[in-house]
């Protein structure tokens, strides 16, 4: 296993909320971005797609450029009245070794995607089809669900949502997240012993200042 694979494996063991907090509360996509299968987890490096709403030509093109381990990150402009991704693209993506999809938009064929076990994070479902006419761009920086994503950035997804880690910050994000986990383990131990969260977090003075006893 390469050092990069080890890094991704270690990041994948952490929750998206922990990573978001650990890297200074940055990188979290809009709260609407959720998995169609809440039990799935996903991590990989971003293959970005800038596409027009209601058109998936560039998505088909992007699959020809994909490498195993990529996460397809699609800026579909938040358009929810069409599903530019479905079961056939899912099959094609899996054949290419793509490990997940993040789309600022909608998908369809959700039941089949669930059966295939392919992680998909989106803002909604739409049964409406799309065109295959409009130009776009692949492997360029995009804004997806409120976050700037560059090709090669690390994408982590779980039930809570999606977080983006800048490729050059991956190790520091991991170190900070592990430190946060260790700190929270200590807090859990104190809670189990009966100490209140007010005491643990030192919130007494703030509450007193608000006239609360």
UniProtKB/TrEMBL annotation:
EC numbers for this chain: 4.1.3.17
Domain of life of the native organism: Bacteria
Binding positions (Mg(2+)): 109
First-tier enzyme category under EC: lyase
UniProt catalytic activity: 4-hydroxy-4-methyl-2-oxoglutarate = 2 pyruvate
Keywords: Lyase, Magnesium, Metal-binding
Single Gene Ontology BP annotation: phenol-containing compound catabolic process
Chain sites annotated for binding substrate: 86-89, 108
Keyword Cytoplasm attributed: no
Gene Ontology MF terms: 4-hydroxy-4-methyl-2-oxoglutarate aldolase activity; metal ion binding
Pfam families: RraA-like
Gene3D superfamilies assigned: Ribonuclease E inhibitor RraA/RraA-like
Swiss-Prot/TrEMBL cofactor(s): Mg(2+)
InterPro entries in the cross-refs: RraA/RraA-like, RraA/RraA-like_sf
NCBIfam families from the UniProt entry: PRK09262.1
Subunit composition and interactions: Homohexamer.
Family: Belongs to the LigK/PcmE family.
Protein name: 4-hydroxy-4-methyl-2-oxoglutarate aldolase
UniProt source species: Orrella marina
């Amino acid at each position: 296993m390469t050092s990069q694979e080890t890094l991704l494996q270690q990041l994948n063991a952490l929750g998206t909320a922990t990573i978001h907090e650990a890297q200074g509360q940055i990188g979290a996509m809009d709260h609407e971005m959720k998995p169609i299968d809440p039990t799935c987890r996903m991590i990989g490096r971003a293959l970005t797609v800038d596409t027009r709403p209601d058109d998936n030509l560039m998505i088909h093109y992007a699959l020809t450029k994909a490498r195993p381990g990529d996460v397809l990150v699609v800026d579909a402009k938040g358009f929810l009245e069409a599903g530019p991704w479905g079961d056939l693209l899912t099959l094609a993506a899996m054949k290419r070794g793509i490990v997940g999809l993040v789309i600022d938009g909608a998908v369809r064929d959700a039941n089949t995607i669930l059966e295939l076990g392919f992680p998909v994070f989106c803002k909604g479902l739409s049964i409406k089809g799309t065109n295959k006419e409009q130009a776009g761009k692949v492997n360029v920086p995009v804004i997806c669900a409120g976050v700037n994503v560059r090709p090669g950035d690390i994408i982590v997804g779980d039930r809570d949502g999606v977080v983006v880690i800048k490729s050059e910050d991956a190790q520091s994000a991991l170190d900070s997240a592990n430190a946060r986990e260790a700190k929270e383990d200590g807090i859990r131990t104190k809670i189990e012993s009966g100490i209140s969260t007010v005491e643990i977090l030192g919130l007494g003075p703030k509450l007193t200042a608000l006239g609360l006893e």
